[in-house]
Amino acid sequence: MLAVLCVLGCALWGRHAAGAASDSDVSLLPIAADRARALAPLLRGSDLVLVESQPSGSLKQITLLTLVAARPETVREVASRAERYPDFIRQLKGSQVSRSDDGSLEHAFQIDLGIVRFDVRNRIAELPASPDPARSGAESADSSEPREPGSDVRPLELIDPEPAPGGSRRLRLDFYAAGGGTVLSVCAYSSLAASPEPVRRLLAVTPLFQHGIVAASTLSFALLIKRQAEALTGSPGVVLPASGPADYEPLLLRGPVALLRGRDGRLRDISVVLRSSASREVLLDAARQASRWPETMPILASSQELIGAEEQSMVDLRVTLPFLAFHSRYAVHTLGYGVDLLAVAGELLGSRLRFDIQAAPATSEADSAPTSRLILRGQHSFDRASLRLRQLYRSEPLWEYGVNFSLYFILAQGLRRLAEGSAATGSSR
After folding, report:
1. Whole-prediction pTM
2. Is CB count within 10 Å lower at the N or C end of the chain?
3. Which fold has domain 274-428?
4. What b/e readout covers 98-110, taking b as 16+ CB neighbours within 10 angstroms?
C-alpha cells in the first residue's frame, strides 16, 4: 500500500532531482479551446488522456480532458482554493496558503500516507487567457472586462517554487465553457529521475512508467476537482452538450489517446488508440503472436501460446511488478482485424483484452505512408490480484483510473513496437 501511494503521489506532489530539464525549459501546450469544446459530446461518456513524448521517447507532457457538470468559475474556484484541498483530497494535511508579492499563492502542505509523510510546496498562479477562435475578434485574449457567468475563465498554473537542481514539476489547468458545464483541461509534466525507491523500481522495468505514473496522478487530481465541483453545484440541474461521437484524429498526430469510461465512480473500461507506421497485416500478426509480446512488453514475465480443448487458441500470461503479480489464462479469438482475449482461468477470471486494427485516415496529400490505427480495449479489475491495490482503492477509488491506464498504455506501445520492428526487419531483407 505504502509503495503504491509513494509511486502515484510523488509524480504530482513530490520533488524530483537531476535528469530533467529545469522548470524554465518545460513548456506545456494545451489543446485549443475550440477543439476541446468540440470533444464535449465524446467526453459525456469518457475522460480523454493524450500522451506526448520527446523524440527520445521520454515524456513531453500528459493532457487530460474531462467534462464537468459545473460552470468554469466553479471549477476554477475549487482548483484555486488550495486551503480547501483537504476537504476532498484525503491524504493532504496541514494546508497553509499565503500570497506572494506577485499575486501568486504559496501553498505548503503535507502528504500523509499513514506510515510516512512528506512536505510539499506549490505555487499557484493565474495565467493570461489564451486566444480563442470561437470568440469574437473584438474581445482581446487578455481582456480585463468582467466575463459572463459560464464563459471561459483564466488558466491556472501549479509549479514547485523551489525545484531541486534539474528537477521539474508543472501543471496547467484550463477551463473551457461547454453548454452549462466545463471542459477541464489539465496538462502535466513531472521528472521522476531521482524519485523514491518504489518509483525507481518501476522505471527499471520500463521508462514508459514515467508516462503512466504522471498520467495516474494527473487523472486522480483532475477527477477529484471534478467530483468536488459537481458536488458543490448539484449536477442534475446542469445542461451539458448532448452525448455523441467526436473527431480526435488531430490529437493522435501528437501522441496516443486513451478513453476512460466509468460508472458509479468506478472505472468500467479503457481504450488506448495510437497510430502506427506498420501495415494492418503486420499489426494483426503481432497481436496474434502472443509468445513474442514480452520482447516489447516488459511488464509481462512470460506469455505462452497453448492449444486448449476443441483446438481453442489460448495464451498463458504472467505479470510481475512491484505492486502487482498475476497469472491468468486467456482464450484467444481472431475475427477479421481484431484479436479478443477472455480470461478463462486465474486471478483475473472474466477479464477481457482486445486489439482492433484499422486503416488510419491520411493527414495530408503528402502522407502516403501505410499508417494504421491500433486500438487496445481492456476491462480488468487488477485489484482482484493485489491486496495493495484493494487497500489503495478503498482509500480513493479514482486511483483505479491511473493504475489501469499505466498498464494498458505499456501494452499498446509494446504491440506497436513489436509490429514496427517486424516491419523494419522484413523490409531490410
Report:
1. 0.87
2. C
3. Alpha-D-Glucose-1,6-Bisphosphate; Chain A, domain 4 (3.30.530)
4. eeeeeebbebebb
